[in-house]
């Protein structure tokens, strides 16, 4: 016996060769299609057109004109609809939409045309269930705050990298809260992401071991995870601040203040460590009157800068541990009228920083390289899991623009 003919509802009845509505009085409505749009009404032998099939898919199969005028809902086209319209089997359609070889060009062209005409969208969840590896072609990215320029650029770099490999990126902000990080990871894994890129918060990422046992690789970005070993890509934070101190001393400064984030944050701890080491080396130690930490936003940084600059003697230069701290400090310096007298260097760039007067000297991270290297490590693990863990430190760069080159009042040479 031949295979059972697929049936597509387009206004014709096939049971016992019954008729279609246009010329006969019987219903319901079905076409009997043996291949593609072959087949005919059992009574009048009228054959459906491609537009009949498309209309059937768009209207949900069993809709009458009255149903449509009454506002009935349509259904999404399926892979079977594409196969019927293109006149091929479902497996052939699957090979084409998954970019697999061994499909004749003429069939591929028909399938792609059918996909376009039906506005077909692949069901990745169903596809992942059928695949042996059960992958969904998606990855999860957890950042601290997507509104932060570092996080937004990182997300864009990762997204572009993933799209080149036909993967979707799901992004969420943890707000630096450990519980929120875990919630996001749980949500991403519930959606069966293939891997995770995480800017970690808190002091314990060991919960991720459970996901790795489920073959979900993890790569940490910007800072290492804690109580777990995993691939990590980060910046040379301490080296960047060391260079900032050296730069300021070359312009005659020794009273150099430092404004930093919470010391529980890895990057903040590394940056103040670089400051302390350079100050010990170059100016015989740190004056604690000029150090403020635990600054989480520009508002707290503004108040801290006002306080530090009110010390006697006041510092002649500031180093700011991140871009939000820099924004608050610059605001305070403007209020005090010392923008042209006190040098300042910020870690991470600010939008329009080069248009300030004087323009802002900054230590910049190579976020594009960080994002690409992290994504590359993740996709390498997806392709070939390894027991070895890699730690990649990406160099930072000091960009002199003017604010970091203001000489101390005792040294107007600008050396």
The main sheet comes to: 6 strands, parallel
The average pLDDT score comes to: 83
Number of helices: 14
Distance between the termini: 94 Å
- Enumerate the spans where pLDDT stays under 50 for 5 or more consecutive residues: 1-43, 58-72, 128-132
The strand order across the widest sheet is 4-3-5-6-7-13
What radius of gyration results from the CA coordinates?
Answer: 32 Å
* H and E string: EEHHHHHHEHEHEHEEHEHEHEHEEHEE
Class computed from helices, strands and strand pairing: alpha/beta
Report on this model:
This protein has 415 residues and is α/β, with parallel strands linked by helices. 38% of the residues lie in helices and 14% in strands. The chain is built from 14 helices and 14 strands. A 6-stranded parallel β-sheet has the order 4-3-5-6-7-13, sandwiched between helices. Helix 7 links the parallel strand 3 and strand 4. Helix 4 (90-97) packs across helix 5 (105-118) and helix 10 (237-249) packs parallel to helix 11. The longest helix is centred in the middle third of the chain and has 17 residues, at 266-282. Residues 1-43, 58-72 and 128-132 have low confidence and may be disordered.
Give me the secondary-structure topology.
Blueprint: E1 7-8, E2 31-32, H1 50-59, H2 65-69, H3 79-86, H4 90-97, H5 105-118, H6 124-130, E3 138-143, H7 149-164, E4 168-173, H8 178-190, E5 195-198, H9 209-213, E6 218-221, E7 231-235, H10 237-249, E8 256-259, H11 266-282, E9 291-292, H12 298-309, E10 317-320, H13 323-336, E11 343-347, E12 361-365, H14 367-383, E13 391-394, E14 396-399
Parallel strand pairs: 3-4, 3-5, 5-6, 6-7, 7-13, 8-9, 8-10, 10-11, 11-12
Antiparallel strand pairs: 1-2, 12-14
Helix pairs in contact: 3-4, 3-5, 4-5, 7-14, 10-11, 12-13
């Amino acid at each position: 016996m031949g295979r059972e003919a697929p049936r597509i509802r387009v206004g014709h009845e096939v049971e016992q060769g019954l008729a279609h509505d246009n010329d006969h009085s019987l219903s319901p409505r079905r076409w009997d299609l043996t291949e593609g749009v072959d087949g005919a009404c059992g009574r009048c032998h009228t054959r459906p057109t491609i537009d009949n099939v498309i209309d059937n898919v768009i209207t949900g199969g069993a809709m009458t004109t009255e149903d449509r005028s009454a506002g009935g809902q349509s259904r999404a086209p399926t892979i079977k609809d594409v196969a019927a319209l293109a006149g091929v089997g479902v497996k052939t359609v699957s090979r084409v939409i998954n970019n697999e070889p061994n499909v004749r060009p003429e069939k591929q062209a028909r399938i792609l045309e059918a996909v376009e005409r039906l506005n077909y969208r692949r069901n990745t969840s169903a596809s992942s269930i059928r695949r042996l590896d059960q992958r969904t072609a998606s990855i999860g990215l957890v950042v601290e705050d997507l509104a932060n320029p570092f996080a937004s650029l990182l997300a864009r770099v990762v997204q572009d990298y993933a799209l080149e490999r036909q993967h979707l990126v799901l992004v969420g902000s943890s707000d630096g809260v450990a519980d929120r990080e875990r919630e996001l990871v749980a949500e991403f894994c519930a959606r069966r992401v293939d891997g995770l890129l995480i800017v970690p918060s808190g002091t314990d990422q060991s919960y991720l071991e459970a996901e790795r046992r489920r073959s979900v690789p993890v790569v940490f970005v910007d800072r290492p995870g804690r109580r777990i070993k995993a691939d990590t890509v980060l910046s040379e934070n301490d080296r960047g601040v060391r260079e900032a101190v050296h730069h300021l001393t070359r312009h005659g400064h020794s009273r150099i203040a430092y404004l930093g984030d919470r010391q529980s944050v890895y990057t903040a701890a590394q940056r103040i460590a670089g400051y302390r080491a350079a100050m010990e080396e170059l100016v015989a130690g740190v004056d604690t009157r000029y150090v403020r930490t635990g600054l989480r936003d520009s508002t707290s940084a503004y108040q801290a800068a006002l306080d530090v600059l009110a010390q006697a003697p006041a510092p002649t230069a500031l180093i700011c541990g991140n871009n939000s701290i820099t924004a608050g400090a610059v605001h305070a310096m403007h209020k005090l009228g010392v923008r042209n007298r006190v040098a300042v260097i910020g870690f991470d760039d600010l939008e329009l920083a080069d248009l300030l007067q004087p323009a802002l000297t900054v230590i910049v991270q190579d976020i594009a390289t960080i994002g690409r290297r992290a994504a590359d490590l993740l996709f390498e693990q997806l392709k070939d899991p390894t027991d070895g863990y890699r730690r990649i430190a990406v160099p930072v760069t000091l960009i002199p623009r003017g604010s970091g080159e203001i000489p101390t009042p005792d040294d107007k040479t600008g050396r």
